[in-house]
Each structure stands twice: as C-alpha cells, then as structure tokens.
Amino acid sequence: MAKVTREMVEKAGVDVKKLVELLVKNAAAELTTFYYYTILRVNLIGLEGEGLKEIAETARIEDRNHFEALVPRIYELGGKLPDDMKEFHDLSACPPARLPKNLKDVKAILKVLVEAERCAVRGYTHICNLTAGKDHRTYDLAMAILNEEIEHESWFSEFLGEGPSGHYLRRGETSPFVSKFLK
Amino acid sequence: MRIFTKKELAKFNGKNNPSVYIAYKGYVYDVSSSFLWQNGEHQAYHNAGKDLTILLKDAPHGEEMIFKFPVVGILKD
Fold it and tell me: For the domain that residue B54 is a member of, what is the CATH number?
C-alpha cells in the first residue's frame, strides 16, 4: 500500500474504502467482459458476423488492458483482489455479457456488446465524478479507460444503425489512452 | 397497492430478505432480479431498503434504469 497516497486521497474527502470497492468491481467487470467477449467474438461468423469480429477483438483486448491497468491502483490504495475467482465474477460492476440464445442473431450479439460498453461508460464516468480534483491518479486512469469505453460504445452503436461513430478501426496498437498505465 | 413506511422499506435491504426493494419518487421498486443489486448493494455506494430519489441526480444514469423494475408499493412519508 502507498500510505501517503492513500492519506492524500482521504484528506481530499474521498471515501477510499468505497472507492477501492468500486475499483475492484470495475476490474471484475473488465476481466469478466474479456471472458464473455471471447465467446461473443468466436460466434461472430458468417456474412454479417465476420465484419464485426475485428472490433469485438479490439474491445476484448482493451478491456483486458483495463483490468491490468486498474489492479496496481487497487493495491496502491490498500485494496486487494478477492482470493476467489467466482466471488470476483459475482461482484462485477456490470452484468455478464452472455451470448444470446440465438447464436445466428448478430444484432442480438451487438446489443449485448453495446450494453456492456454502456455499463462501462456509466461506471467510469461515475469514478471520474467521484475523484475529479481529489484523487488525481485514479481520475487520470478512469479518464483514460473512459475514453476507450466511449469509443467501443460508438463502434457497436454504429453497427446497430444508431449513427456514425466518427471513428475508424484501430491501426496497429491497442489502448491508445490506457497504454501509458501498462508500461 | 401496498403502502410502505420507511421502516418497513428498510427490511428489504437484501441482507435478511431475498426481496430487494428501493424507493424512487414515492414508489417502491422490486430490484431483486438485478445483477447490480446483489445483496442489496449497488456500485459500492448505495444500499437497498432506502429512498434513493435524491441520490439519483448524482448517478451516471437516469430514472429509466429504475422504471425497468416492477412497482410493488407506495412509500408513505
């Protein structure tokens, strides 16, 4: 634990215990999403599904990166990950992004993907609001993750016909915002 | 429709009761089916069995997320 780090955040008026709990919940959401997106991605097949596979894969890898980036902050603030993986899964900040019943329904898969991203956007917006001007490092991390989650939402939203994302596919490296926390 | 006092609503906090209820703008909602209200807790900061009307203004979502759940009663002041 980084004692002075925690002290500074507490002095700024943040309930560190609750913040750490929230960070653990979001770390669980990222890792479980990585798992569920693996299943969703492999089922994105055929004429409709194949074109979505690449963005689903990018979102999957970036969600795993978010998990990796969150973990050090949890421990710096005196928190820890649960010993039990099942417990970790069940405390996720977002519901499981389970495969829809009809595997051939690409639109249903897209809806699962976009809802997962929307949950994440809400979650990191909340963390940014809680830490803005108080816990600079957590704010910076949550903001970086939020930037990527917003892009993921807009990609899937575009394919659902909700309007243009304004983006193009990632070229080369993943996690343009979060990568600084992974070095 | 069932009338709840705040004391009665507090019994549905998810700790000793499988039914998890919250109140919003005078109505009591059953959120027991929600993954995000397991054990009566929501996103580390909120507990069930309470009136959350004031707290919603700071939430990263609107009241539409509450309206998805069934109304099971009315909250009496």
Answer: 3.10.120.10
